[in-house]
TrEMBL record:
CDD domains: zeta_crystallin. GO terms for molecular function: mRNA 3'-UTR binding; NADPH binding; quinone reductase (NADPH) activity. It comes from Subtercola boreus. Residues 10-336 form the Enoyl reductase (ER) domain. Keywords: NADP. This is NADPH:quinone reductase. GO terms for cellular component: cytosol. The keyword Transmembrane does not apply. Gene3D superfamilies: Medium-chain alcohol dehydrogenases, catalytic domain, NAD(P)-binding Rossmann-like Domain. InterPro entries: ADH-like_C (IPR013149), ADH-like_N (IPR013154), ER (IPR020843), GroES-like_sf (IPR011032), NAD(P)-bd_dom_sf (IPR036291), Zinc-ADH_QOR/CCCR (IPR051603). It holds the Pfam family ADH_N.
């Protein structure tokens, strides 16, 4: 089989296309033939490491997310049959078995059924982006543990960076769950994407006063903020969040420290929730998987420019270019077409 690997950390040039034996399947495992591999910022950051060119103990296949079909199952696996359409998650987290390969073998709990009618492109978006968004939207103490239609009815959510992959998923999931969704973007083109994703109110933070606009829309404050850039947004977040609300943060930026307005946060009894989907609890992960699968089945997590998330496609042979595109801030979702299934 063809696979992309790296044996030391560094720039995209460390990624190499190689021939490997198709991996065998042990008890409790599932072999998936990958149709589409998704590339997220976490993938290039893992590949880059700390910048010291560290040699790896085990050759690594990159990319956490993907979708495809079950090719073989191991002893004891009862959830799947050969030929089932599936999406996979966390495939390269503390494992060498990412999705930038024609086949990957995973424990069956990392493999999930892809609902009927849901494309492989959507399936390759249900890992890092959608699971992160779900945890951010359910972090509020008074909110639901699992999103469903109507579960956020009567609430208002602010999503910063609504044209990004996690922001896009947060808009879609919040709207599906019945929230009023406000989002911020940096250009008219990104505003159009956020609106296509389902945001009810779109604010261009480069030309508009975010706090004033949000206060006009939600005078009592927003119950949840989903924030991609707290270094820039923290003061505005605190200003617009409701008393007892939650600010969910999934990227901190550099430098890593975030100066928090302590007294204003105390006065409102604000909760700050940092989100890393890899290390959420089993209950949180289970709820997220169930909810995003249901949302996908309902057509609420579609991708493509018409749905607010353009797809930027690469071949497996061009995985280095795909990583470079994400690292350079490509607008939309970067996809690697691994096999036509």
């Amino acid at each position: 089989m063809k696979a992309v690997v790296y044996s030391r950390t560094g720039g995209p040039e460390v990624l190499q296309l190689v021939d490997r034996e198709v991996p065998s399947v042990e008890a409790g495992e599932v072999r998936v033939r990958i149709a589409v591999s998704g590339v997220n910022p976490t993938d290039w950051k893992s590949r880059a490491g700390s910048g010291d060119g560290r040699e790896l103990d085990v050759e690594q296949v990159p990319n956490q997310d993907g979708a495809g079909i079950v090719d073989e199952i191991g002893l004891g696996v009862t959830r799947f049959a050969v030929g089932d359409r599936v999406w996979v998650r966390d495939t390269a987290f503390q494992r060498p078995t990412g999705t930038a390969a024609e086949y990957t073998v995973l424990p069956d709990h990392l493999v999930n059924p892809l609902p009927d009618g849901v494309s492989f492109d959507v399936g390759a978006s249900l890992g890092i982006p959608a699971l992160t968004a779900h945890r951010a939207l359910t972090a509020r103490d008074a909110g639901p543990a699992r999103l469903s239609p109507g579960s956020l009815a009567g609430t208002t959510v602010l999503v910063t960076g609504g044209a990004g992959a996690v922001g896009h998923a947060a808009i879609q999931l919040a709207a599906w769950a019945g929230a009023t969704v406000i989002t911020t973007v940096s250009s008219p083109a990104k505003a159009a994407l956020a609106a296509a994703a389902g945001a009810h109110h779109v604010i261009d933070y480069r030309s508009e006063d975010v706090v004033a606009r949000v206060n006009d829309i939600a005078p009592g404050g927003v119950e949840t903020v989903v924030d991609v850039n707290p270094l820039e947004n923290i003061d505005d977040d605190v200003a617009v969040v409701a008393r007892g609300g939650t600010i969910a943060i999934y990227v901190s930026g550099e430098p890593d420290g975030i100066p928090v307005p302590a007294r204003a946060s105390m006065t409102k009894n604000i909760r700050f929730q940092f989100v890393l989907t890899y290390t959420t609890s089993e209950a949180e992960k289970s709820n997220a998987i169930a909810a995003v699968s249901a949302a996908a089945a309902a057509g609420a997590l579609e991708v493509g420019e018409g749905h607010g998330l353009p797809l930027v496609r690469f071949a497996l042979t061009d995985t280095a270019a795909a990583h470079r595109a994400v690292e350079d801030g490509a607008v939309g979702k970067v996809r690697i077409d691994v096999a036509a299934l």
